[in-house]
Structure formats: structure tokens, C-alpha cells
Amino acid sequence: MKIDGTPYRSVWVDQADGWSVRIFDQTKLPWSLDILSLTDEDQVATAIRSMQVRGAPLIGAVAAYGVALALRTDASTATLDRVVAMLGETRPTAINLRWALARMRGALHNLPAADRVAAAYAEAAAICDDDVETCRRIGEHGLPLLRDIAARKQPGQRVNILTHCNAGWIATVDYGTALSPIYQAHDAGLDVHVWVDETRPRNQGAALTAWELGRHGVPHTVIADNAGGHLMQHGAVDIVIVGTDRVTRTGDVANKIGTYLKALAARDNGVPFWVALPHSTLDMTVADGVAEIPIEERNPVEITDLTGRTADGRIETIRVVAEGSPAANPAFDVTPARLVTGLITERGRCEASEAGLRALYPDKG
């Protein structure tokens, strides 16, 4: 995708030195576009934990490069196993992280130590390329849903899409998952408009989704998280498309906290609720998402404090919760498959069920 006409991916190897890894510091968006240089596995772990890099597919890609960085110092099997285990503990909910690390370990474990560094960079690059093509295809398979809605509209009426959190190109390596069909619809000339949930507590919708949609020229409006149901009641939402951090073999979906409530509102108002996912997000070992998917509990300060730009241009953090009041911060919730209209994958669309997923992914365990 492009920022002010310049094409970017969300992670890349620095061409100047040929080995350090560059990412956008997403904690600084939308106020500034800061590029970080990662030079070892500890910096990669910090970037993932602090959400300088976030989004399930992108976390996996950056962690893959973290393995390559570690092996530059010591290419032993002990280091390979250590860094895979260490990076795997940085975020518990998104399965893409462990998928990418398992792929790295599988590609490198049986190689001679002398060959591992070059192979690690090549495998990490392959993971990135796979993600880009996967997300492009997700967009292709989601685009007909938006075309069908547009075809039923009267002249001058736009297609209204609601999304939650950020599942755009800065949450992946490129294109995005939930936003990929939207970008492709916009680029094809469809009159689309996106309702962007602010997505408290970290405001990834207001800060990230709105930023990237705006930079690409896609019409959008930021709304409070609790406004979605109201808009659905009044016919202002044609379709909901969200991303996901993990999908069970039965079609349950773990995504940013608040997704479940959007699904309930969509079901009550007859609004289609679609989930876009890459193959790396599937977890065929889990059947019951509510019971089995670990939900990350993040620092309560994300609830109690807010960061933004003051009228005079300063970036400040303020407390918005009464002193002495405790806060709880579950980062994700699980939407049961029964509330999901269908899944949009790189292999096509399917119902949110084990039968639907196995029809598209017979090769999955």
C-alpha cells in the first residue's frame, strides 16, 4: 500500500546494511510516522509486547525476522530453540505468532549452523511474501460481497461497511485482511464508506484504521464503539467485516475486545457479519473458542489513561478514570460461529463451521 504516494510494506530489511529489520512504530501513529530499526531478538520481543508492532499476521512476520537476528550472533540449535520459545511468549492470543515461529524452526532445525542465518532471512522473507499474496486474495474473495451490495443500491447510494479494530495493511505485511476487500472495492470505483470503530482501549480504529484509510483516500467516519448497534438499527450499515487473531476449527473467532458485541447487534438487525482471515490464523487444535482460546489481559493503564494531541500540538497522556478505581483490560473476546455469517479466506469464502473450513483446508490437521 502507499503512504502519500510512496509504496511500503509493514516490515522490511534495511537495504543500507542488509540485515537489520525496519518497522513502523505503531504506538506513534497517527501523530507521526516513525520507523524503528530492530537489531536483535530482545528488541523484537519488546516491539511485540509494547504493540509498536501489532496485528496477528504482522506479529508473526516480525517474529520470524527476530529469529534471523538472533542467529546472526549465535546460530546454534540452543539459540534457535531459545528464541523461538521466548518470542512465542510475547503475545498469547494470536496464533499466527506461533505458526510463524514453528515454520522458522522447521526450516532451520536440521540445517548446519553455518547455513542457518541466510536460510532464516530467506524463510522470513517467504513468510512475508506469503502474507502479502494471502491478503491480496482475501480481498479478491471479499470484493464480490461488496459488489453485490452495490448492485442493489439506488443511484447515489453508497455501500456502508463497519469494521472493528485495525485489520488493514499495517496489521499485516500488506493489503490487510478485513480492509483488503474495501481497498480493492475503492480502487475498482465502488462508492464505499467505512464506519470505523474507535476500538478502545488502545483506539486502533481511530488511530490506525482511520489513518491508513485516509492516506489511501477511502471515505470513512470514526464512531464511538457503542454507536454501531444504533447505526445498524437505522439501516446505516450494510455489512460488517472484521479481522481475527485466531479461528477455531469450528469457526469461533477471537478478535479485539468488543467484536462479540458487534456480532450480536448485527444478528439482531439482520446485518451480514463476515470475518476475514489468512490460513496462518486457523487453529485446528481448538474446538471451543470461548473455553480454550487464552485471552490476553493487558496493563490496566490502557484503560485508565489516554494519549492524544493537545490543541497546541503536544502529545500528552492523561488519566480519565477516577483515582483509586481499579481497571480490568481483557484484550480480546470470542465470537461464537453461530453469529458469523461466513469467513473470507485466501482460498475462498465458507461458512463458519468445521465442515466449511475443512472443505477449503483439507490439508490442515
From TrEMBL:
Any Pfam family: IF-2B
Any one of the GO BP annotations: L-methionine salvage from methylthioadenosine
Marked site: Transition state stabilizer: C165
Record InterPro entries: IF-2B-related, IF-M1Pi, IF_2B-like_C, Initiation_fac_2B_a/b/d, M1Pi_N, NagB/RpiA_transferase-like
Record's keyword annotation contains Protein biosynthesis: no
Molecular function via GO: S-methyl-5-thioribose-1-phosphate isomerase activity
EC top class, as a word: isomerase
Annotated pathway: Amino-acid biosynthesis; L-methionine biosynthesis via salvage pathway; L-methionine from S-methyl-5-thio-alpha-D-ribose 1-phosphate: step 1/6
Key word Amino-acid biosynthesis present: yes
Keywords assigned: Amino-acid biosynthesis, Isomerase, Methionine biosynthesis
Protein family per UniProt: Belongs to the EIF-2B alpha/beta/delta subunits family. MtnA subfamily.
Entry protein name: Methylthioribose-1-phosphate isomerase
